[in-house]
Amino acid sequence: MTTTAPAPTAGVSRRLAAMGPAFIVAVGYVDPGNWGTDIAAGAEYGYTLLWVLVLANGIALFLQYLSAKLGIATGSHLAELLGARLGRTGRAIALAATAVILLATEVAEFLGVVLALHLLLGGPLVLSIVLGVVLVLTMLSVASGNRALERGIALLLGVIAAVFVVQVWLSDPGLTPFTGLAPSLPPGAAAVAVALMGATVMPHNLFLHSGVVHWSRPVERSAALRSAMVCAAIALNGALLINAAILIVAAATRSGAGVPETIGEAALSLEPALGSFSVFAFGIGLLAAGLASTATSGIAGQFAIEGLTRFRPPLLARRCATLVPAVLLLLVGVGEVQALMVSQLVLGLALPLVIFALIRLTDTASLMGEMRIRPVTRRLAYCVLGFVVIADIRMLLDLFGG
User: Which residues span the domain enclosing 148?
Assistant: First the structure.
C-alpha cells in the first residue's frame, strides 16, 4: 500500500493561515492615528524619537504575549473575564474606560478614511465624509468570515508597506535615521512620545488578541502560544518598520518645518522631494490603513462591550454612534494631524488601566492554572506598567507646566 505525500504547499498554507490573527492584531499598529503621531514626531523632532517606536514595539510584543496567553489558557477573552469577575461598580468603570478607548480609536480611523478620500478625490469635504461613511459601514458589514477577513487585512497591510518602502527609497535618508535609536527626549517632546506609545501599544489590541487567538486551529496550549507569538512577532515587527518609515519620510521631507495642520499639507510636502506620485501613494496607503483598522477595531469593540455588559449591540449601530464626533471634528475644521495625535494621547493615558487588568488576570492561579505567569514575568509586567504611568505623568506635567 502506498501513501501520497502531502503537497509542499500544505505546510505553507497552514503557516499563512496561522498568521491571520497576527495580521489582524498588527493592523492596530498602523492605523491613521499612528500616521498622525509618526508624521508629527518626524516633522517636529526629526529622527530623535525613533527609539520610542522601537521601545513601544517591544512593550507591545510583551503585552500581546500576555493577552494571547490569557486567551489560550482560559478559552475566553480579556473583556469577558473582566465582566465575569468585576462587581457592578468595577464593570461600570471598566465600561467607561473602554468606551473612551473605542471612541478615540474609531474616531482616528474614520478621520483617516475621510482625509484619504479627500486627498485622492478632491471636491467638497462633505462628499468625502458621505463616501467615508458608506465605505466604513460597508467594510464592517462584509467583514464576517474569519479567513476572508484575514486575507483582506493581509492585502491592505501589503499595500501600506509597499507605499512606504517606495517613499523611504525616494527620500534617500541614508544612515542618518539610525541616530534616532539613541534615547533622548527633547524639551516639549513628552506629549508626542506618549502619543507614539499610545498609538503603538494600543489598548483595544489587548482585548482583540485574547479573542482572535482562538481563530487558529486548536492545538496543545503551549504550542498554540508559541505559534501565536512567532506570528505576532513577525507581524508586529513588520508594523514597526512601517511606522518607522512614516516617521523617517516625515523627518526627511519636513524636519524643521513644524507639524502640518492637515493631512493634505503633510502629503503635499512630499511632492518636491519624492514627486507627484508620492501624494497619490500616500492617499492610497492612508485609505488602506483606515479601512483595515475599521474592521479590526469593530471586532475589538464587540469583544469589549459584549464581554463587559453581556449584551451584543448591533455592530453597525454602535459604529454609527462613534462616527458622529468624527464628522463634527471634520466639519468644525480642527487641525487634522493634531486631532489624530490627541486621539492617541488619550489611548496612552488609558493604557495603564488595561495593562493592570491584564497583569492581575494572568497572575491568577485559579484562572490560568499551569499557564499562570512566572514571578519574573510578573515583575517585568509591573515594570512596564510603571514605565507607562511615569511617561503619562511626565507628559501631563509638560502639558500643564508643572
Answer: 14-400
